[in-house]
Amino acid sequence: MEESSWCIWVTGLPGSGKSVVSEALIKLLGRKGIRAQLLSSDSLRKVLTPKSTYSLDERDVVYATLVYIAELLVRNDVNVVIDATGNLRRYRDNARKQIPRFVEAYLECPLDICMEREAKRKRTYHAPKKIYSKAKEGKTSTVPGVGQPYEPPLHPEVKVDAFKCTPQKCALKIFETIKQIS
Which of 87, 125, 167, 178 can bridge 20 by disulfide, Cβ–Cβ 3.0-4.6 Å? Predict the structure, then answer.
């Protein structure tokens, strides 16, 4: 049986707009009559690792679980939008290997802009608060882009300028890519 469902992984630095763009994408898909399940690494982390350390071992477990759930959903004909930093390429590459119709959507945004956004945001979408300021103060070394690497995708199916585009325009550009694989 040929699978018709797909998975989009929205990746980027913390503060790049992943959660806002993912929500806008879910709403846009809904208006077009396309159902999709949003999987957020921050929401999953609240259940899987309630006292998160963001260690490499913990990230390995969280991202492997996220990919496993996404693969199960796609296999059962549910479209999936993953909202997750996935700071190492290997996490996203694992999803690409496991899920036949996989799209990587990279929200490109300068680190200083991400830091500024993260400091000002009111809604955190289950993400920890003030991560960049804690990293600057030396209180944590686990923040992608500061204390930990963020490996941008080498060949994402779609790349959007999350600094210049509104979340709705980013979602629309991702949607145009989804139309090509549907």
Answer: 167
Q: Which residue has the tokens 């999987």?
A: 39
* CA pair distance 173, 105, nearest whole angstrom: 9
| pLDDT tens figures, 13-65 | 999 999 999 999 999 999 999 999 999 999 999 999 988 889 999 999 999 99
The answer to the question of residue 122 being in a domain is yes
Residues 6+ apart with CB under 8 A from 47: none
Q: Look at the block and give the residue holding tokens 């992984």.
A: 9
Q: By C-alpha distance, which of 12, 2, 3 is closest to 174?
A: 12
Structural contact between residues 9 and 102, judged by C-beta atoms closer than 8 angstroms: yes
Q: How many domains does the chain have?
A: 1
